[in-house]
Prior knowledge:
The chain is mainly α.
Amino acid sequence: MNKLDEDIGSFAGVYSLFGVLDEYHDKQYLDNLEYKRRSEKELSDYISSAQTSMEEMGEDYDYHNYDYGVEQELRLEEMAANAQFDFFNEAKELHALALIEMKVMFLYKEIEIRLKQIISTYYSQKTSQLSNLRALNSCFASNGVALEEINGYQFIDDLRRVNNDLKHSLKINASKKIKVFKSKTKFDSESLGVFLKLASYEIESFFNLLIRKINGEDVVELGDSSFLGEIPF
């Protein structure tokens, strides 16, 4: 397998990008949570320290150990931190959904690009008129390769359905046939995440098997997944 074959068959770069996006989103949550906890602790510690000093010193208590203005500033800071955290939590599903939508569309676009790259490189044919998966299938078929018969193709077709639905709205239409969405009427980040994680493994497997087939290698053992690694998202 040459360098081009390896590049087409590996989605490590794509999945690494997805991992970076997830890490950024998770970091935003953790930063907001840390800000909330820190502001609450600062207020609690300040009041507790003032009360302890008052109890220990009694009439000799130095009121300079306590400043009403400082307490109010800390209370306002706590309110701001809690409001920011609550706002992020309320928008968290929207953020997660936007990220997963982007992943679906990016991955499907990457699939089309790689299929066209194979056609251009291995068959020396122009791809400008191959505007959808059906046209790509026909082109491969004319070169003696039936994409539908390669293990993992169904996940590419499923990704196409999900991608097309997401282009219009969150309503599930053509994707209703896909198992993970059968009981749902609208997409959500959890079900899309489950689908994408499963599809990602199978799609990488598909491209490796496709390259093997084009190179004349035996791809009868369609369950071979020895090349798969851990997807970081």
